[in-house]
Amino acid sequence: MKAQSALPDERLPELLEQMWLIRYFDEKIDEMFAKGLIHGTTHLYVGQEAVAVGACADLTDDDYITSTHRGHGHCIAKGADVNKMMAEILGKETGYCKGKGGSMHIADVSTGNLGANGIVGGGIPIATGAALTLHMQKRDNVVLCFFGDGAANEGSFHESLNLAAIWKLPVVFICENNQYGMSGSVKDMFAIADIAERGAAYGIPGTVVDGNDLFDVYASVKEAIARAKAGEGPTLIECKTYRWKGHSKSDAKKYRTREEEKEWRAKDPIRRLETHLKESGQMEEGDLRRIESAAQQKIEDAVKFAEESERPNPEEIEQDVYA
Amino acid sequence: MRTITYREAVREAIREEMNRDPNVYMMGEDIGVYGGAFGVSRGLLEEFGPERIRDTPISEAAIVGAAAGSAVTGMRPIAELQFSDFITIGMDQLVNQAAKMRYMFGGKAKVPMVVRTPSGGGTGAAAQHSQSLEAWVAHVPGLKVVQPSTAYDVKGLLKAAVRDDNPVVFYEHKLLYNTKGRVPEEDYVIPLGKADVKREGRDVTVVATAMMVHKALKAAETLEKEGISVEVVDPRTLVPLDKETIVQSVIKTGRCVVVHEAVKRGGYGGEIVSTIVESEAFDYLDAPIQRVAGREVPMPFSTHLEQYVIPSEDNIVAAIRDVMV
């Protein structure tokens, strides 16, 4: 890790809290689903927290992200209000999309979140277009384009990386390789070891990162952002990580073993950060637990806010189809 | 007023809108030095440079998606798809992304983009370069759909499309590019959702789109000699549709023939017929409404076969005679 890319210590408590917020947000969704309190479907980010938080750590509201099927983590890392997120998932009018978007479409364009996406690979051309805006309007900002390993086999990935590369657009393509596209293991769906190798096909750098290591993600994305802002074009970063839960709520996870899950849970990105904080003497157990419970409380408050919110008015059903 | 071609009218609209608003730009395959597959953007590269006349790789999904992404973040792209058949390759970005962003995001986004694309048959280009797929996109809430038939209309409607805050699919008919018409040099905008009565008549209303407007006008001339007075209504935009003008015309004439080049089954003509049947015009109908539309086959190559698939002036004349009985 290059020194200038190192994550400053004073940022760590805030980023740790974000990781806990993501963890508790999605654990709560999981629990509420089990109780039948949420309808539809959802895709949980538990286990991948270091990617979203590390990548988004330096972004401002003027930078953009596009997200994936598994979007809650990116949303929180981009600074979304968990109350409005929870309200959206409960289909309430106080939600980010007034109950019209749901889990897969939470977006807030005014703060640079161009949305989760119900189409695998659907956000990649959009991120490229947002980067084109930044380039044409000469804005000193960047787009982070999150997508999963599954999306790397979609045509939109190839078309977009090529377009962004030839136009040297300020976008960082962040592939979150969580080992499975639904039930399809990366071992079966790719004939290459690292998706990052595909950068070479478009003449852009491809980097493999430990996606469970906040510091590693941060450093790599920071360098890619600097490169993008300098007009040198996109970078492909592959973050190796693991989704602890199934693909969605209907997933019995027959395609993987308990041993494998156990192995990855041992690489918990949050515990890893906590261990670092303790071993480097920056924090004691008590401080860590206070951060964890503050996050947990915010999620409980979000549930209360969402539950107490009004349902959307069906008379507004035709609103916002057109501008 | 001077007379220019439909092609020149499209180019003028693009040029004027790019001069008016620095956020308007154009991208597409071979639009730069080549000037576009149908020569629409010829000369624009010299005028505006490669930043604003952006040649893209052959990548329709990326073109449509990048247009959506740049529109939602503050630009106003005009994306050219070389043939409207290729919209299929960019369909996810158009249908699942651009069309729905505003609604899915609770109204907190605008997607001001135009996808311009040549459609229709009659050029001998066979099944993958001759289709009229406008009903596909008209079916999707969130998209607007335009089908101009004259040089005057195409300039005014394209300006409206560029200034619209929604994704607009703008169909230009290949056979119309060389047709000429009177077009003002000054700025004018034709609002989307306003039909045009291309010819007034008393006995029967023909609702026709794009190339079929011209065939319907010829059919009307033919029938005038027999004492049948035909009114020709051109909706110009399918979404939004000017229901009022169509309904009022049918109330006046009591008879209606709907004509489009697209395949009949599932075509937009069915929507126009339903609009009439569901309205007060139903009580004024003196005969069942007839549809004249493309045959339900992929476009064949042979000119001899192609002319059997695309509705002809004779087909329109025959349908009008049918409803006059």
From TrEMBL, chain A:
The enzyme's E.C. designation: 1.2.4.1
Cofactors demanded by this protein: thiamine diphosphate
GO-annotated molecular function: pyruvate dehydrogenase (acetyl-transferring) activity
GO BP, sorted A to Z: pyruvate decarboxylation to acetyl-CoA
Residue segments, region Disordered: 299-323
Entry superkingdom: Bacteria
Catalytic activity reported: N(6)-[(R)-lipoyl]-L-lysyl-[protein] + pyruvate + H(+) = N(6)-[(R)-S(8)-acetyldihydrolipoyl]-L-lysyl-[protein] + CO2
SUPFAM superfamilies in the record: Thiamin diphosphate-binding fold (THDP-binding)
Keyword GTP-binding included in the entry's annotation: no
Pfam families cross-referenced by the UniProt entry: E1_dh (PF00676)
Domain (Dehydrogenase E1 component) ranges: 18-315
Keywords: Oxidoreductase, Pyruvate, Thiamine pyrophosphate
Basic and acidic residues composition-biased segments: 299-314
InterPro entries: DH_E1, PDH_E1_Alpha_Subunit, Pyrv_DH_E1_asu_subgrp-y, THDP-binding
Function: The pyruvate dehydrogenase complex catalyzes the overall conversion of pyruvate to acetyl-CoA and CO(2).
Subunit and interaction comment: Heterodimer of an alpha and a beta chain.
NCBIfam families noted in UniProt: PDH_E1_alph_y
Name of the protein: Pyruvate dehydrogenase E1 component subunit alpha
Gene that specifies this protein: pdhA
Automatic annotation (TrEMBL), chain B:
Signal sequence residues: none
Stored InterPro entries: THDP-binding, Transketo_C/PFOR_II, Transketolase-like_Pyr-bd, Transketolase_C
Alphabetical UniProt keywords: Oxidoreductase, Thiamine pyrophosphate
One GO MF term: oxidoreductase activity
CDD domains cross-referenced by the UniProt entry: TPP_PYR_E1-PDHc-beta_like
Keyword Nucleotide-binding recorded: no
All copies of domain Transketolase-like pyrimidine-binding, residue ranges: 4-179
Pfam families membership: Transket_pyr, Transketolase_C
Official protein name in the record: Alpha-ketoacid dehydrogenase subunit beta
Organism ancestry: Bacteria, Bacillati, Bacillota, Bacilli, Bacillales
